[in-house]
Amino acid sequence: MEYLDIFFNEIYKIFFLVVPILVSVALIVWLDRRVWGLVQKRRGPNVVGPFGLFQTLADALKYIFKEIIIPASANKIIFILAPIVTMTLALVAWAVIPFGENLVLSDINIGILYLFAISSLGVYGIIMGGWASNSKYPFLGAIRSAAQMVSYEVSIGIIIINVLLCVGSLNLTDIVLAQKNIWFVIPLFPMFVIFFISALAETNRPPFDLPEAEAELVAGYQTEYSGMMYAMFWLGEYANILLMCAMGSILFLGGWLPPIDVYPFNIIPSPIWIIFKILFLFFLFSIVKAIVPRYRYDQLMRLGWKIFLPFSLLYVVLTASFLFYFDMLPTKEF
Amino acid sequence: MLFHSIFFYFFSIIAIFSALMVITSRSTINSVFFLILDFISIGCLFIMVGAEFLGIIILIVYVGAVAVLFLFVVMMLNVAQQKQSWFIGKKSSHIPFGLVVSVIIFLELLVVLGGWKYKKNIMSSSNLFINENISNTHLIGTVMYTDYILYFQISGIILLLSMIGAIVLTYQKKDNIKKQSYINQISREKITSIELKKVEFEKGVKIDD
Fold it and tell me: What's the average model confidence in pLDDT over B191-198?
């Protein structure tokens, strides 16, 4: 009975985490299209509901009532599994994101490694979808995206090492609390820029949206998907983008901490601060989508392996030697 | 404890089942997917015994990188048509070799594990202590970078050597390949790429001479 109590208690908590995330994904899609439209001097979605806020809900309703078509030559099990994997992984990672002190679903010791592991598994949804469709365009898209995501994961990993050197712990709450005096975006600003660009590549956002480049590959790995399965890919993609924004705000922008710890700022509750930071990063994501042209594939690979990787390695050495020389390395007494 | 053992049996049954399916399933792609499932359940078992760092590292390294490359190679080579014949059909010629290799690996494991059981202090492990208050990430770090720094660096050098070897084996320099040189592309300027000509009426200009 005791176990069942714990079980239902956890389910209740998970429910109150997942539902707001799904709703915010719907709103964030609206925001993305709106920003994109305004940059291009269009209006964007503005008809359904106030300011067009319900546009995504209308779209989702449309997808639900559409027929799910499975190609005759597709590998049916893997074809159906692919969107499920994408969406599950995108939602599962939110378990360790802290929205305030003690306001986190599971406060594990190795939170940042967990986030990194889940985001590196995200490539499976895309490969599975692309291969199981048994069609040329999806397969090309899947291959491109696998190479791209594996490459940019490496530089994200090294950027995380930079932050960990300054914190001395893998726990996300510790990482945020270590930024009480100064946000890591100031001493590690070059790393923040590289993290932002790698996050764009990791989530297949423009200018790195080669896996679904509509001019060459129709829709990349999503070409054969229809109805609710396409919508699940879509939801998973945007949940991943939000997750990357949350990761950026925790690693560099001080998570739930206010910019300065003085009166009008520190009475604002902590979840509002982190949501504000996530929204700010997402706004940058959608601005970049609107104003930057798409990269060529060899340029993308060159940027990842020949520029970002050596530079972030160099910065690890710099950070480590700086901390060592000024005797600022975070140590734990046993 | 009841839930703990239920989860333990759940993960270990999945691990053994998927390990069997890796060698018996008929298409190569399915084998790789079962291999991934196997890695994941082994990672979960590691996390269950409290070695959360090792479990997550298995997820990151094996599932996140190695298995992706496996999948990549299997998909690109299109070996899905080669049906394996474990139980049915004609006998495969790979089975004797496989048996020899696995017997050798089994004997080696026997020697290593047996030696470890009967002579425990074959490697100095004086600084190994267990403190419940310290996370095992910290413990691994303190052991690996102090007592075992030599082994750590030797393994790093071996990995570096194999990396260089793989590059040397696969890299072939060809002269007749068309390459896009980004330096040329960036350093292109308006003066060298566009030429304005006055075209005379009914005469035209000659291009490409």
Answer: 80
Rounded to the nearest 5°, which phi and psi values hold at B52?
-65, -30
Is the residue at B205 inside a domain?
A: no
Which structural domain, as residue segments, surrounds residue A187? 67-325
Nearest CA-CA distance, residue A332 and chain B, Å: 9
> Per-residue pLDDT tens for A282-311?
999 999 988 888 888 888 888 888 899 999
Contact A334 B59 (CB under 8 A): no
- Token pair 């350093």 in the structure block, residue: B187
Within a domain: residue B204? Answer: no
Chain A residues with CB-CB distance to B2 below 8 A: 3
pLDDT at residue A333 is higher than 60: no
Neighbouring CB atoms inside 10 A of A192's CB total: 21
* Gap from B71 CA to chain A (nearest CA, Å): 9
Q: What is the mean pLDDT of residues A259-266?
A: 77
Residue from the list B52, B71, B138 with its beta carbon closest to the beta carbon of A332 = B138
CA B42 to chain CA centroid, Å, is: 15
In a domain, B206, yes or no: no
- Residues of A in Cβ contact (< 8 Å) with B44: none
ipTM of the complex: 0.81
Is pLDDT at B135 greater than 70 in this prediction? yes
A19-65 pLDDT tens trace: 988 888 988 999 998 888 889 888 888 888 788 888 888 888 898 89
Count of structural domains within chain A: 1
Give the pLDDT band (50/70/90) at residue B129.
low
Range of the domain at B35: 2-84+93-120+129-193
B14: domain CATH number is 1.20.120.1200
Which chain A residues contact residue B21 at CB under 8 A?
none
Distances (CA, A) of A85 to A130, A178, A187: 13, 34, 37
Work out how many domains chain B is built from and give that number: 1
